[in-house]
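FORM 12-B: Structure-to-Sequence Request
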C-alpha cells in the first residue's frame, strides 16, 4: 500500500504497487473491490464529486465511480506521474480544522524602554471558532526572526470557551519591537472567525 484517501461515505481507498486501487469500508474493513487503472499505483485521492482517482506510474490517471464499480476511466498523462499527496484538496477541506495565521510588528518606544501593558481585540466569533494570540519581543526587527526567541502566550478569545482578553502583558520584557502572531481556527466548516481590531497598549519608561 502506498497513497491513501478517505471519502465522505466511510470508505478508504489505497494505492497498491501491483493491483491498482483497493477500497475498504472503514467500519467493517470489508473490501469493496480492486480496480486496475494501468499498472502499479502510487497516489490515491477523492474529489469533491465523490469520484476516486489513482495515479499509476506507468503513465496513467484513472477515475473510479465507487457507486458503479464497472465505470473505471483511464487517461494517459505522460511518463512517470507520481504523488502521495491529497492532490484534489478534498482531505484538507474535510478532515482538518480550518486554520489561518497572520503576523504583525508593533513598534514601542524608540529611545526609552517599553512597558508592554495590555492586549485586547474585537472580533466576530461564531460558535466553534476562536482566535489565539502569541507575542515575541526584541530590540530590533531583525532579532524577531530568531527561531530561538521566546514566544509569550497564548491568549485565546473564543465563542464558547475561554476568553483571556484583555491580556496582561506585564511579564513581557521591555524590548522596542513586538511581533504579534495570531491564529484563527474554526471547528465549523461553514463559519469563520473575523478579527476586526487589535489594541496593544504600552508606555515608555521615564528616566529618573
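FORM 12-B RESPONSE
SEQUENCE OUT:
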Amino acid at each position: 500500500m502506498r497513497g491513501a484517501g478517505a471519502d465522505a461515505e466511510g470508505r478508504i481507498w489505497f494505492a497498491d504497487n501491483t493491483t491498482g486501487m483497493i477500497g475498504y469500508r472503514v467500519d467493517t474493513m470489508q473490501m469493496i473491490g480492486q480496480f486496475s487503472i494501468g499498472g502499479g499505483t502510487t497516489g490515491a485521492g477523492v474529489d469533491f464529486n465523490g469520484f476516486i482517482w489513482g495515479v499509476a506510474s506507468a503513465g496513467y490517471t484513472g477515475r473510479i465511480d465507487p457507486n458503479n464499480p464497472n465505470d473505471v476511466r483511464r487517461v494517459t498523462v505522460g511518463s512517470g506521474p507520481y504523488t502521495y499527496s491529497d492532490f484534489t484538496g478534498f482531505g484538507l477541506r474535510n478532515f482538518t480544522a480550518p486554520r489561518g495565521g497572520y503576523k504583525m510588528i508593533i513598534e514601542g518606544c524608540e529611545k526609552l524602554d517599553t512597558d508592554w501593558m495590555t492586549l485586547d481585540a474585537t472580533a466576530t466569533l461564531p460558535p466553534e471558532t476562536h482566535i489565539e494570540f502569541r507575542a515575541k519581543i526584541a530590540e530590533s526587527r531583525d532579532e524577531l526572526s530568531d527561531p530561538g526567541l521566546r514566544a509569550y502566550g497564548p491568549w485565546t478569545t473564543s465563542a464558547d470557551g475561554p476568553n483571556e482578553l484583555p491580556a496582561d502583558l506585564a511579564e513581557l520584557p521591555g524590548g522596542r519591537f513586538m511581533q504579534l502572531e495570531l491564529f484563527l481556527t474554526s471547528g465549523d466548516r461553514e463559519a469563520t472567525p473575523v478579527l476586526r481590531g487589535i489594541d496593544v497598549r504600552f508606555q515608555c519608561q521615564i528616566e529618573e
